[in-house]
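FAQ: What does the model actually see?

It sees only this:
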Amino acid sequence: MTPAELDLRQYAMQGLVAEVSVMALDYFHRKESLGVSMKGAQDWLTVADGAVEAALREKIGVLFPRDAIVGEEGGGAASDVTWIIDPIDGTANFARGERNWCISVGLVVKGMPEIGIIAAPSLEEVYVGRRGKGATLNGAPIGVSGGTDVKRAYFEMGWSTRIPLDAYLAMVRKAFEAGASVKRSASGALGLCHVATGRTDGYAELHINAWDVAAGMVIAGEAGAVMNDFFAGEGMRKGNPILCCTPGLAGELEAITGIVSRR
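And it is asked to produce this:
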């Protein structure tokens, strides 16, 4: 894909994400409109998830009809050029009126994440990353913390029902034993963005899906983060572990999580 073709997709998607952000924020402010249901234990779904994804699919289909689309709600099959959509990441937060949620759209070309756009409308934040061209928050360049002391580190560790609880608790325990502080805020996409801005020093999750990380990987990578090879094997279709951190703490976070980065 040529740089001009990537430019067109980046700027078009920034506009589309801005449009659906207004839609999502309207749902968020009208709790009675959410039609909350559960796909499984702690796996929330709202009317907004389907509406945002449907709107993005429709516009992508018009603008880039040959591009494939994979979405959390509508599924889909990947191709050489694939948009990966999480219409509302952090749906549990969204449904409860907590502001830590976002719309995440990534573009993967031949297995390589190229463009990442993440909007957190209720926080008035928009993250944009483009491979080889840097990452921004609301138009200003961002970068990782640069931390090197695990005893000052602030890690986020995502939790998944697809992983045995003991494995998650063991990972968190190791982090505390190493001297780090640990949090969980229930949005993997924003978790990667927070590494990218230096708000946290690292994010790890023992299993996560492609729509949660495709956009954030571009943003964090362009901000200087170290990550594992998430798209190895069946990562696109079945998900994988994710590790993302400031370079000076990669060894410590690898030891804590058992996830190997691409240092």
